[in-house]
Every structure is written in C-alpha cells, then in structure tokens.
Design goal:
The structure holds three protein chains of three kinds. By secondary structure, chain A is mainly α. Chain A contains 14 helices and two strands; from the N terminus they run H-H-H-H-H-H-H-E-E-H-H-H-H-H-H-H. Chain C is mainly α. The chains are: A mainly alpha, B alpha+beta, C mainly alpha.
Chain lengths: ~325, ~575, ~300
C-alpha cells in the first residue's frame, strides 16, 4: 500500500509538467500579440510605446524556448511570478483565493453528503413508493437546472424580494461577496458570516447532491439484494442493522469514488457559483484570468488544481481500499 | 467580462475641459452659481455624516491599479481621483460651457504659441500625512510615473513634455521640460508641441502629485493603506479585491479651490465602501436587495431602475458609439463607394437600436463629437437620420454606376460585450433595403489589435474622452498621424490641416468653427465613419436615501459632494 | 462536463466481474427483455416520449415556428406572452417561441454529436488500453490524467479561442472532455476479463484477440456505457449553457437554448419569460434524458428478474 501511494505521488510530477506546458504553448499559439492582450487591446488602440514596455517587462520578445525555461526555473522554486494585469504576486493571489474556495467547498461537501446520502438511503428503502418517485424527479430536476440560473433565482427569492417586502434584517440572506470573512476553526462561520455562505454553498452543492442521492439509491438497491444481505437477514438481524452495518458500508464504495471523482465538474460548478455570488475563490479567478489572458495567474491556478486533484485521487484510492478489504489485500488492478 | 468594462467606461476621464483661452490666469469671474455639475441640490441643505456603500463602480470585476499614475479604467480612476487632486478641474455647472478651474493650481499662463505653460501652485495645501503640496510634488510624481521600470499604460502622456519621450525611452534621467520652483511655487512645463488646451489635459489623473513618502515606492504601494494623497478622501485600510474603503482626509479643504467648483470644506459622508462584484447582474441584484445605496444601470434592467429609483440617465457622458469603415477596403471604402456608405448610414434606424438595446438611455448621434464637449454642435452629420427611402435611392445610384456586392458585408464587433443585438438590428435594417450583411463576432481581447491590422471592414468602435477636448475625438480617431487611434485608412489632408490649426487657435469660437468644418468633411464629404449614439448616465439610487448624487460627463461621481438624506 | 449516474463509477472500480464462464452469457439480458422492462417504467417512457416529441419538433421546425429566428417585430421589445407571440418577444423584438423551437435542433445536434465523439474515442482508447495493458495502458492513462487535470474551463475557452466560438467548437470541446470516463469504464471491464480462463482458452483455441475483444468482452461493458451515453446527451446540453455563460459556444443569431438563458439571466425580475422558456426547455430535455437513463439502467440490470 505504501509503495503504491508513493508511486502515485511521483506520477504527479509528469502530469503537472505536461498540463502546464500544454497551456503555455496554447497561450502563445493563440492569435493576437500577447502584449496587446495584456494591455487590454479590446476596446482601444494601444500606443506602440506601451506595447514595448510590456514586452520589455515580461520578456515577451524573447524566443519561446527561453521564456519556457525561465518559467520552469522559477516555478520549481515556487515563484509563480506576478499577474500581468495587477503585477501582484501570484502566490499571494492564489493563497487568499484558495482559502475562500476551500471553505465554500467544505460546506458544499457537507451538504452534499448529509442531504445526498440521507435522501438516497430513504428512497432506496422505500423503493417505488410515491416519495421515491418524487425524490427521483426532484433530484433529476436539481441536476438539470443550470447552476447560475439557480443562483439568480435564489438571490431573487431570498434577498431581493425580502428587501422589496421590507422584511427585517434578520430574515434576509445576502446575495454576494464573502462578507466579514469571519471563521472559527477555519471553516465554521461566525457572526453574520453564514448569511453570505449559505446561498453559494447550496448552489454549489445542488448538482452533486442530486447525483449522490441517486447514486446512493442505486448502490443501496444493489446491495440490499445481494447474497450477504440475505444471509444477514436470515441470521435474524433486524432490518435496520442489516441496512446500516452491512449494506451501507458496501454501498459506500462507489459513492466514495463519486465524491472524489469528477473534479472537472466540481471546478466547473465552482466557477459558475463563485462568479454568480462574487465569492472570491479560485473558481471566479479562473473565469477572470482566462478572459484576461493573465497567463501567470492561469498557470498558477492550473498548478493548484492539478495538485489538488492528484491529492484527492490518492485519498479516494486509500479510503476505497479501506472500504473494500479485497483490495486492501492487494488483489485487483488499480487505475 | 473584464474587457467590457474596459471598453465603454475605460479610457479615463479627465476633468479638464477647456474652451477658455488660457492666455491669462485660469480663474474666470463671469460665471455664477456654486453648484457642481447638473441638477444638484443647494449644498447648504446637505447634512454631514453617515456611511455609504457603492455597488456601481466595480460592478464588473475588481481593480488592477488604484495608483492614479497607473490606473487605466473609469472605475479605478474614481478612487484615484478621490484620493488625489490634480492641478485643474472642470466646472460643468453650465453644461454648454464647461470651463477649466484651478484646483491645486491657483492660476496659469502660457507663452504666445502655447508651448510653455507655467502653473502657480496654491499655498497651504497638504497631503493627508500633513506634508505640504509643492511644485516638486508634481515633478516627483511625473518622474516616478515616467520611469521605464514603473510606467503604466498611460505613461505615453509624458511624451507631451519636451524631453518626456527621451525619459520614457530610457535615454534621459529626467524630463527636461518640467521644472519645479518651490520658492516661487511655480511649475513650468515646456511642451513638445503647441497645445492650446493643455490646462485641460494636465487635470488628468496620471498627472497627480505625490508626497515624499511615495519616493521609491513601486506597485505594491497601492495595495497598502499607505498610499497618501491630497484629495478629499484617504484609504481607511488596505484595499482588497472585495472592497475599497475611503474615509475623509482631514487635511483637505475644498473651499481653498476655485470658488466656482463649489466644493465643501470636508466630504459629507463619513465612509464610503466600494464593493466589488464579478457580474453585473449580481451587482444589480445586490442593489435591489438593499445591500448598497448606489447601483449601476444594467442592460435589460433599466426600465426596472427607472420605475423604482432615481437615475443619472439624463446626465450626458462624453462618449461616442460608432462603426468604423475601412477606407482601404475595396468593397466599401474610398470615394467610389461613398454612395454605398451613405445608403448604409441612412438605412440604420438608430432610434430603434436605442429603444431596443438601451431602452432609450442613449442619445442618437448626429455627429461624432458628443454634447458636453466645448464647441459641440448638434446635427453636423447629413446622413445620420433614418431615411430608408433615401438609402434605397443612394444604393440604387451606386449600383447603377456599375457597382455590386458579391457577398454580404461583414460587420465586426467584439463578442460578449453587449453588441450582438445592435449588429442584428443593423443587419436587419440593411436587409430591408436590399444590402446583404453578416455578423462577424471577434474575440474581445484581441479585437482592436486585429481591427488595426486590417481585420476591419465595418467594425464597431467606441470612444470615451481621455480629456474633454474636441480634438480628442477628431485627432485621436481620424487624423492621419493619430496616436494609434486611426488604423482604418482614413486620411484627408484638408481635415488634418484644419485640426492642426484648431489646436493652435486660442480663441474658443474660432477653434470650434474649425473643428466643425473638419468634422463635416469627415462625415459628409467623405463619410469616413458611421456614428450611432452618445452615451448617457448610468447610475441609480434611492432619492430618499441619497440626497445629492452628481455624475459628471466623465462618468465620475463627485464623491465629496455626495450626501445622505438621513445620515 | 459529465454526469455520472448509476453508472459504476469509473476510475477505480470495475464492471461486475463475472465469476466464471457461465455468467458471461447470463450477464446480458435479451433485447426483448430489456425493452419489456423499460416499458414498464412509466417515468422512463414519459422521458422517451418527450425526446421523441422534441425530435419531431426539431425536424419540422419550419412548419411549427410561426416566425423566423431573426425576424423582428419592430417596437415590440421584451413583451410577455401574447396571442401573437406565445412565448413573448426578446430584447430586439424576435419571437421567443420560434427561437426555442429552432433551438431544439441546435441543442439536440450538439448533444448527440458531442456524445457520439466521446463514445467513439472512449471505446477505442479504453479498449486498447484495457486489452493490451502494459505500457500502452500506462501512456493512455497518463494522457487521461493530464486532460482531467487541466481545469475544464481553461481547456474549453482555450480550445474555443483556437477553433473560434461556434457550435462546432462546443461539440469538439465537449466531445474531447467526455471520452475520459467512457475510456475508464471500458478499460476496467477489459482489465477484469483479460485474466479469465475463458479468454485464455479462447486464445489458445485460436480466436483472434480482436474477436475476443469485440464479441465477448465489450458487450459486458455496454450496460454502463449505454446509460452513461444517454445521460451524457443531457449533460452536454447543460454544459452548453454553462459555457455560454462564460462566453464560449454558439453565437448570435443562433438560437441555442444555453445562449438564450445566459443572455436572459438578468431578466428574472422584469422579463422572466425570456429566462423561463429556454431554461424550461433545457430542464425538461435534460430531465427526459436522465429518466431514460434511469430506465435503461433498471432494464439492463442483469440482477433484476
């Protein structure tokens, strides 16, 4: 197991290298003069002087190969450079954003797990009943609504309308921003913080909660019928014990995988949610940096995401092994 | 998204605008009224106190630079102009005759050919750390801002000074044309070329003064609370990408400036929090939810704003929205195709565009240079009114002369910046008289670069004045030697000559006349461009909460005069 | 963007491992059985019905839509539903109903084509990877890792910039990012089965590897693939909306539903019909595909008797 983990960790390096190099090349293969892009040539003409300055400052006139090696030399020392636009250090930009995204993500995951699994379990147990059907439709609906539409609807329902109806302050939620940014134990909101947190967390969790609910349902259904479940029942165990102790644990295998999986969707949802609610996290930073062509920030962001993804994958693999003793014992192939 | 804000609202706004000959002192005594801008209340009734939250300034993303010598957008300069005061300021109280007044400069004079300007600095002005504002404060700032290692996007402005270009190129250690004399309290500037309107230009935020503590400070300075200025406000804390918080500067006293500007001794509000939003619709939702007192009008939600709030819609903005024609394109450019261009211009229903896309919040253009620019004249364009019959006729005549369109005219514009519906309507209008056209959206970030490289056939353009002078529209956009503003092949030596003469002319009326002649050549003789509309104001607020909101034609809000109704 | 549903989660898990030869045949229910079971699921049938209806609408759009997609009613901007305009008019006076109808074509086209690309690529690469194993497998898996690592939107917008913003670039982007999961599912089932005695026996008997792969191994992987593919169509349509929100994808005057929703997001408070109808179309379509997917999963489930 340990050697497996180490192997996986080492494999991150080439992945990072290829991913970032790909982006680097793509940026310079794009049409348009990078200096022009940086200077904001969208709405006005940029005097040649300004373009020269920019080229000079960032070494954009140097041959591609030189820029490439320069970049990697600095990155290895964890100097991610400075933003083209604001000239702030990328490290500091990412630092504050990552923390904000993490806090939001933690709550989205909490909601996802609690609500998703509970709903999934309940509808598995009451298969084909009315509540099961309703749940199916409801969760399918939650998966089908675009996240930003949901976001705007929530803003309207919980903040705009209350204002128009003159509700008291304590009954209202906030539409945007991170607010006082006050937390305890890193992720527990204190004071008024929860008002800013709740809507984006729900929006972010919406898609994955629905998915997880249905995933859990399906997984539980399979497991409930399995042989070893029959054995447990035959032995006289109560249904509840059967479900919780034996069924749940096995049903969790695919569920755990889903939670860690599909990072792409998670990032996508984060980009939309954070932009809609102006939550100052990595997601909204991605959207902005791509349209700004702010390459250093973009590359830095990609680096963070790649590393995070690899880390999550490893965690999932390990917990997967924990859930399934067959795998822990070394059997079977791993991805 | 970010590019959108760069587009329409960028490009600085200078507060200098001048028609007044600057031959002798800048103060003019024949103006009455102490009001600022248009439609404001009598300032004696305004109350002190209260805190304000603004959702309009940074409604489409955060800021890159708040240091006025580095900032490039309208949003950013609103902060910079609140923290720093420059030599001159425009007085818009008589909207048809804006005048340059002295802020930090008490008076100014020039030599006969407008190549040397000497500004006399007032006594007794201080930065918020107590240090005095001196001519050397400006010299220090100009040198810092033109240092090649530090310089921002607007540093090319320093090439207006003699020796400025050398400094920017790294060939000189200082700008020879700027001399500060602290004993005499004068700042003498020698220009590289004659410029009658220079006092207007030097009011631009890039020319802000800097205190001693700015010495040696680079870009990090603006990210701390240490950026010290001489304006009505100062930073309460380090600005973040979520908000910027300003509080009054106790060292500032607006009554020391030109009386006509009507500034109070101290700002009325005690604190302003500028909140950053990433998405315009979110910012508006936030405003509707009562999370701020000032909102920005967003397309599609304007009627809602007008129905429920007060707006600055009726306050003009110095901007033009137009379509540029590539004169070198054989399909549509040059004298042979003048009738085609005429047909196009007359076929476009500008009022409908205004109503549909802007919900009636823009003014249909009758020329290029907008109202609010001194010397403005209504109706300079002969072919800008909607006249499908005349358009049809012109098109017919053009075809009779042996011309034809083999393929649709491609219309370029930058995508996702709200121009799609405008172009769709234009295509529809052209279709109605038989001219085929098609839309060619371009990636926003490379738009102007590509258009300049010959990608433009008929391309959307917009311009907001850098400084409110007639020549900023005529010269920068259409002259043969424009500073990078004209890459569409328009060149007419008569036009250029008229402009050069106008720039040198110190008599306001004479200059205006010359500018009109030039514009008419551009619009009617050559049909070099197709104006569509002029921008209008864009702020919304609840009049029961905010008592005095003045928006200037530069899209700036004069924050030191904003007051709450019930502080 | 992917929606993995009751699909056996790819990446770290396999399709059910047949314990022995006898199970291979029983793992696949007969087609007639599948259809019968599917029919019993009412919600799945509703979903299917809706999609068929949608396909008809798309096919006969010119007959159904009363106006053209660029036809404008002068002066009638942002008006609510009326007798003349069942879904109202948009910002510049175009009929929303007609645009939604034509939009069905765009959405279905994007959905099906992108999914098709994903399926083909995924099947191919997954099969090769799983069957041949070894270094080929490692290389292909590393490639998928890289693709998964680059933030989806960065990839999407970069590709869009190179290919231009259009329907085609959306199809390419979504096709490219979707194959990853299919590949893993396919690969897993191959990995599991390679070791079977059955396969060894077949090889010994002289059957070619290709034949084994396609006639015996692949069909087992089909169940999750079919379900995934169905849901993927809906997911792609949803992704188009998200990418339009970020400025990538079909441009005006194409009546893509996602584009219409993204343009109307601010209209919730003053012209909700602009948002409601295209968003509703997206939601119903995606929902239908999900229901069908659910139904297929149930119907194909070999353990259901």
């Amino acid at each position: 197991m340990t050697s497996y983990i180490i192997r996986r960790l080492l494999l991150i390096i080439p992945t990072v290298f290829i991913a970032l190099s790909f982006l680097f090349v793509l940026f310079f293969a794009l049409p348009g003069d990078p200096a022009n892009l940086i200077a904001g040539g969208a709405e006005r003409n940029i005097p040649q002087q300004t373009l020269d300055q920019i080229n000079e400052r960032y070494g954009l006139d140097n041959p591609l190969y030189e820029q490439f090696t320069d970049y990697w030399q600095r990155t290895v020392q964890w100097d991610l450079g400075e933003s083209y636009l604001s000239r702030r250090s990328v490290n500091s930009i990412l630092g504050e954003k990552a923390v904000a995204s993490l806090r939001l993500a933690i709550w989205a995951i909490i909601i996802e797990i609690v609500v998703g699994i509970a709903v999934g379990l309940l509808s598995a147990i009451r298969r084909y009943s009315l509540s099961d059907k309703l749940t199916t439709i409801f969760t399918a609906l939650a998966s089908a609504i675009p996240v930003f539409v949901l976001g705007f609807v929530m803003q309207w329902l919980f903040a705009v309308k209350p204002n128009q109806w003159d509700w008291p302050e304590w009954a209202r939620l906030r539409t945007s921003g991170i607010g006082p940014n006050s937390w305890a134990l890193f992720f527990i909101p204190t004071g008024e913080q929860w008002r800013y947190l709740i809507l984006p967390a729900i929006a972010l969790a919406s898609v994955t909660t629905a998915l997880l609910a249905r995933m859990t349902r399906g997984s539980m259904l399979e497991v409930l019928r399995a042989d070893y479940m029959r054995t447990a029942r035959a032995k006289g165990l109560r249904e509840r014990d059967v479900v919780l102790r034996h069924g749940l644990r096995n049903a969790m295998l695919p569920v755990v995988t889903l939670i860690g999986l599909d990072f792409g969707t998670a990032i996508g949802a984060a980009v939309l949610t954070e932009t809609t609610f102006t939550w100052p996290g990595l997601g909204s930073q991605i959207a902005q940096s791509v349209s700004d062509r702010d390459l250093p920030v973009l590359l830095g962001l990609t680096l963070v995401v790649v590393l995070a993804y690899a880390f999550v994958n490893i965690v999932v693999d390990v917990s997967y092994a924990w859930f399934d003793p067959r795998i822990r014992l070394g059997k079977g192939e791993h991805a | 998204m970010r590019r959108q804000r760069r587009g329409i609202k960028l490009l600085a706004l200078i507060l200098g605008l001048s028609l007044v000959a600057a031959a002798c002192g800048g103060d003019d005594d024949d103006d009455e009224g102490a009001q600022q801008g248009g439609g404001s209340e009598d300032q004696q009734d305004l109350q002190q106190g209260g805190e304000l939250t603004d959702l309009s300034t940074f409604s489409q993303g955060g800021w890159d630079h708040l240091d006025p010598t580095l900032s490039t957008t309208v949003s950013e300069s609103q902060i910079g102009d609140s923290i720093f005061d420059t030599l001159t300021e425009v007085d818009y109280s008589d909207i048809d005759n804006p005048e340059v007044r002295g802020e930090v400069a008490e008076s100014w004079e020039s030599n006969d050919d407008a190549t040397e300007w000497t500004f006399t600095i007032r006594d007794g002005l201080s930065f918020s750390d107590g240090t005095p504002v001196l001519p050397s404060s400006f010299k220090r700032s100009f040198e810092r801002a033109s240092d090649p290692d530090f310089a921002g996007d607007y540093s090319y402005l320093f090439s207006f000074f003699e020796g400025g270009q050398d400094k920017l190129d790294g060939k000189a250690d200082e700008i020879s044309g700027v001399v500060a004399d602290d004993d005499a309290m004068t700042l003498t500037t020698t220009l590289a070329e004659p410029y009658a309107n220079f006092p207007a230009v030097i009011g631009f935020h890039t020319f802000a003064p800097m205190p001693e503590s700015a010495e040696g400070q680079g870009v990090e300075w603006e990210q701390t609370a240490d950026m010290i200025g001489n304006g009505p406000f100062m930073l309460e804390s380090a600005p973040t990408q979520q908000q910027v918080v300003l509080v009054p500067n106790p060292e500032w006293d607006g009554t020391k400036y030109a009386e006509e500007l009507g500034l109070p001794a101290q700002p009325y509000v005690e604190k302003i929090t500028f909140v950053v939003s990433q998405d315009q619709d979110t910012a508006w939702n936030s405003f509707l939810a009562g999370e701020g007192e000032i909102g920005q009008l967003t397309s599609g939600r304007i009627q809602e704003a007008v129905d429920n709030y007060a707006t600055t819609l009726n306050d003009p903005v110095l901007g033009i929205y137009y379509f540029q024609i590539n004169q070198e394109d054989p399909r549509i450019g040059g004298p042979d195709n003048k009738l085609l261009r005429q047909a196009i211009s007359q076929a476009i229903d500008r009022d409908e565009i205004n109503e549909a896309v802007y919900e009636g919040t823009r003014t249909t253009a009758t020329g290029i240079t907008p109202p609010g620019i001194p010397g403005f004249q209504e109706g300079l364009c002969d072919y800008c009114a909607y006249d499908p019959d005349a358009a049809q006729q012109a098109y017919q005549e053009w075809q009779d002369a042996g011309n034809s369109l083999d393929e649709p005219i491609p219309i370029q514009f930058n995508a996702d910046a709200g121009h799609e519906p405008v172009v769709q309507i234009i295509i529809d209008n052209l279709d109605a008289i038989g001219i085929p056209a098609t839309a060619e959206p371009q990636p926003s970030d490379t738009y102007f670069g590509q258009m300049a490289d010959g990608g433009c056939v008929m391309c959307r353009a917009g311009w907001i004045a850098d400084y409110p002078t007639y020549d900023n529209f005529m010269f920068d956009l259409f002259s043969t030697t424009a500073l990078g503003g004209n890459n569409y092949g328009y060149s007419n030596s008569d036009f250029d000559d008229l402009l050069a003469e106008a720039k040198r002319t110190t008599d306001a009326d004479q200059a205006a006349d010359l500018f009109h002649q030039a514009e008419q050549i551009l619009l009617n003789d050559d049909i070099g461009t197709i104006p569509i509309n002029w921008y209008l104001g864009q702020y919304a607020y609840d009049p029961d909460v905010v008592a005095n909101l003045v928006q200037q034609p530069s899209l700036h809000i004069v924050w030191e005069t904003v007051a709450l109704a019930n502080p | 963007m992917t929606l993995t549903d009751q699909v056996t989660p790819p990446g770290h898990v396999e399709a059910p491992e047949p314990a022995d030869v006898a199970d291979l045949g029983a793992a696949r229910p007969l087609r007639a059985d599948v259809w019968r079971r599917f029919k019993r699921n009412r919600m799945a049938m509703v979903g299917l019905g809706f999609i068929l209806l949608l396909a008809l609408v798309a096919a006969f759009a010119p007959l159904i839509a009363p106006y053209g997609i660029t036809e404008r009613a002068s002066g009638q901007f942002r008006e609510g539903p009326s007798v003349d305009h069942w879904f109202g008019t948009d910002d510049i006076g175009r009929d929303v109903f007609s645009r939604v109808v034509y939009g069905a074509r765009v959405s279905l086209r994007i959905g099906f084509l992108a999914t098709a690309i994903s399926l083909v690529l995924g099947l191919l690469l997954g099969a090769i990877s799983g069957f041949f194993g070894g270094s080929i497998d490692t290389i292909i898996m590393r490639i998928t890792d890289v693709f998964l690592a680059i933030p989806y939107f960065v990839l999407a917008i970069s590709v869009a910039t190179v290919f231009g913003r259009s329907e085609n670039s959306i199809i390419v982007i979504l096709g490219i990012t979707g194959w990853l999961f299919i590949a893993r599912i396919v690969r897993s089932s191959f990995l599991g089965l390679r070791r079977l005695e059955y396969v060894e026996a077949a090889t010994a008997l002289g059957f070619s590897r290709w034949r084994i792969m396609f006639r015996h191994v692949l069909p087992n992987a089909l169940q999750p693939i079919i379900v995934y593919g169905t849901i993927s169509v809906g997911a792609v349509i949803l992704a188009e909306a998200a990418l339009s929100f970020l400025g990538v994808g079909p441009q005006e005057p194409t009546p893509a539903w996602g584009l219409m929703v993204s343009e109307a997001k601010g209209s919730l408070t003053n012209a909700p019909h602009l948002l409601f109808f295209p968003a509703g179309a997206i939601v119903l379509t995606v929902l239908a595909f999900i229901l069908i997917g659910d139904g297929l999963r149930d119907a194909l489930d070999p353990k259901l008797k």
